[in-house]
Design brief:
The protein is built from six helices and six strands. By secondary structure, the protein is α+β, with helices and mostly antiparallel strands. Strands 3-2-1-4-5-6 form a six-stranded antiparallel β-sheet. The radius of gyration is 28 Å and the shape is elongated.
Length: about 260
């Protein structure tokens, strides 16, 4: 009698746990599905900006020296040279990085009126000092390069890599969205099994380390493609390189139970 009572109690406990597990699994499935929709919507919105970035990159690569000094920094679709005098030149923090910041003496036209951030390991930081004359190359409203005494340096933030990096971000968002839908399907399957009392396989964890790997893959592909190709070929190669590593990288992440 005691054994029968214990068995009945155990069965009732399992019956109580089943609906609770099923409810939690359904909530996870719905949350993952909504996350997947949001990620795919965001990726689709970003993808519409890629052609604009490609056009800007092509215009930058095809730009020639300006023939008129009257062209303005915001509208000049050519390489414009602005000459100025250095007001200050010193090492400074820019975010987490240390740069050699050069400020020109006003008045100088935009965008040369903004501080110029040079590589601290380059040659120019050893040469430039307050009072020196420098030449700043600009395109539209972008600082392109600085030169002094025949030594020149290209400045960061040029539009020749924006298209591939934007494509990489778009791919990262889309792939995370697909993984979210896979998780939603798994959650719905677990909920159904819990409802029917059947055992469920262990849930695969997909924490920050795995997510970082999925996000890093298309960004790395975009970085290397942007250095090897230009405009649309660079975007296409970003997608191709990512496609070659995305599936095996994801399978590895799913098998790595950590």
């Amino acid at each position: 009698m005691a054994a029968k009572t214990a068995a009945e109690t155990a069965v009732k406990a399992v019956e109580r746990v089943g609906p609770a597990r099923s409810g939690r699994a359904w909530l996870r499935a719905v949350a993952c599905a909504l996350l997947g929709l949001a990620l795919l919507a965001g990726s689709a919105a970003l993808s519409t900006l890629v052609p604009e970035q490609v056009a800007a990159e092509k215009a930058f690569l095809d730009a020639q020296p300006c023939g008129s000094e009257g062209a303005t920094g915001d509208t000049a679709d050519c390489m414009r040279t602005i000459r100025g005098t250095v007001l200050s030149a010193e090492r400074a923090k820019s975010g987490r990085a240390t740069v050699f910041r050069v400020q020109l003496r006003p008045p100088v036209p935009a965008p040369a009126d903004r501080p110029l951030h040079l590589d601290t390991h380059g040659e120019l930081p050893e040469l430039i000092k307050p009072g020196d004359e420098v030449e700043v190359t600009t395109w539209r409203n972008v600082q392109v390069g600085v030169s002094h005494d025949g030594v020149s340096e290209t400045l960061p933030g040029l539009p020749d890599e924006d298209a591939t990096m934007l494509a990489g971000i778009t791919l990262a968002g889309a792939w995370l969205g697909i993984l979210a839908f896979i998780a939603a399907f798994g959650g719905a399957r677990r909920a159904h099994r819990a409802t029917t009392g059947r055992p469920s396989p262990p849930r695969i964890r997909f924490g920050p380390a795995k997510c970082a790997g999925v996000v890093a893959a298309p960004l790395v592909a975009g970085y290397f493609a942007g250095h090897a190709w230009d405009t649309w070929p660079a975007v296409v190669m970003t997608v191709a390189i990512w496609a070659l590593i995305a599936l095996p990288a994801t399978i590895l992440a799913l098998r790595w139970d950590a």
